[in-house]
Write a structure and sequence with these properties.
By secondary structure, the protein is of the alpha+beta class. The protein contains 2 helices and 3 strands. The chain has a 3-stranded antiparallel beta sheet. The chain is rod-shaped.
């Protein structure tokens, strides 16, 4: 009977490790989803801010879009005017797991309402 002592402890440790690994994986997936949403939000708000300045030219519109995107955790990587529409692409850098850095991007378009 001495050979069986401690077997339950090892099994519980193994099960605990599995739960920790699944929890870590779940947190990484959640961080990825949140970063995608943050990139989409920053792109949408940046495009709207740029569209509000579209009549002042692309430099002013893109500066406004970049400012708003930055305030929302993103970095403007592309901005251009298409008539009065502003098209922006924003990227967000995030860390799903310690020591692992990833980037996600989102694009948005905003302009006047067309009938």
């Amino acid at each position: 009977m001495e050979a069986e002592r401690g077997g339950a402890s090892v099994l519980l440790l193994a099960i605990g490790l599995v739960f920790v690994l699944f929890g870590t994986f779940g947190a990484a997936v959640a961080a990825t989803g949140m970063a995608r949403q943050r990139a989409a939000l920053a792109a949408d708000l940046g495009a709207l801010a740029g569209a509000a300045q579209a009549l002042d030219g692309d430099v002013r519109a893109c500066a406004s879009a970049g400012d708003i995107a930055g305030r929302n955790g993103g970095r403007l990587i592309d901005c251009r005017l298409d008539g009065l529409d502003v098209l922006v692409t924003v990227e967000v850098t995030f860390t799903p797991l310690p020591g692992m850095s990833r980037v996600t991007a989102s694009a948005a378009r905003a302009g006047p309402l067309r009938g």
